[in-house]
Design a protein that fits this description.
With about 500 residues, the protein is α/β, with parallel strands linked by helices. The protein is built from 18 helices and 18 strands.
Length: about 500
Amino acid sequence: MVTRLVLGCDSLGQLLVDSLVDRPGELQVVVTDGDHAETLRGDGIPTVHVPEYAAETLKTVIDPPAESIIVASGDGATNYRAARAARTAFPDALLVAYLGRVPSTDHTEQLKSVADRVIDPGGAIAEQVLASAGRQGHRVRQLHRALREIDGKLAVVMHDNPDPDAIASALALVALADRVNCPADACYAGDITHQENRALVNLLEYELLHFDDESFDIDDYDAIALVDHARPGVNDQLEKERPIDIVVDHHPPRKPVEARFVDLRSDVGATSTLLVDYFQRLDIVPPTPITTGLLFGIWVDTKQFSREIAVDDFEAAAYLIPYADMEVLAQVESPRMTAETFATIGRAIRNRTVEGSVLTSCVGQFRERDAIAQASDRLLDIEGVTTTMVYGIRDNVIYASARTRSTPLDVGETLRNAFDQIGDAGGHADMAGAQIPLGFLGLIENDGDDDADVLIETVQTVIDERFFETIRERPAWQRDSGVTDSVYW
């Protein structure tokens, strides 16, 4: 089987052939110049002469299909014809195309519409091309194909009340879609209330569409992508049965994820890291606002490179730093905290319940979604506390945010076990969240003060009992790691 197929063989093609000829796997070169074909064959390079680059001709010459194809003549128009024929003949192959010695805007756009990667003559060297053609480029090839095959507009949907990782990842995916002429919008529901998140969006002038915007209708879109979460209808405003085309996420899934393209890598600390990987493998530097957002997304989701950090996260950050606007990031990291957030943190401290090293707190009714996450983070600094869960009621839904440090307890699994039957829950080992509709508990909000007190008391009883009981019954691996129950109780 032909592993690598080279169409055209100008100076770059010759460099590639010289690098490929002694490598494992079968190489085949196809050219339209008969004399050139004879020269290459005289040098021991397997070469076929064809009158023109046509799909039927390529399928006849190369059978079975090649795994990767490199189009490398010196003429952009020829490369477009060859690339178009190769894409038709071998739709599943990785296709890398060279722009030619003097690329035109038309040829550049044409090649981008059919190739998985387009090589600029100013920066193309053989090893870069070969790296893209290798196994590590498999994911980006699949993503590129999925975007290219979308017939119409793409909605890139973040989870509700998106954080910097979700926001930056959505905008990065929109930028990738734009490169293959797939119109896309970054969309979200809920609120951006965390002061840092608002500063990020405002300072970098991000274009985000809200589900409640008068001009927005999700049914206007022909395809859906999810970033930083993996299932429709769970922490977003989509129907649970909505077909999904693309999923990019770093959270460990509890259930199978169905989509045309799925990239779930729970071994990295941020979804932004996955988007950086795509850009790197395509040899693309995103615009400054996107590189800045991606860097901040990694910074926040790894808690300043101290939580669930992987080598890939460090490498992604190192790649982004030269292109990011560090002055903007400095402003983003020091915004003012709202009075509502201060009040919520105060109620969380005042209402806390502590058993051993585990702390829970019900803040009652609250307005800003990110406030409970900030409260859960702050309460983790209390001496002797290693696990926190702060929760409250907003719009007939109980929202919970949990954190843990330096313990074998997996709060993502704990919240899923405690609340998945009555709501939606999940996250990582050291940070997680849950959403539980009051209706699942047979409760509704009421305007009267007495009824409101009874509601909050009932919610606190149910949520605390489920959470603490789940911790007591946690899996053996969370108990048998040299840490005794006395740490918790």
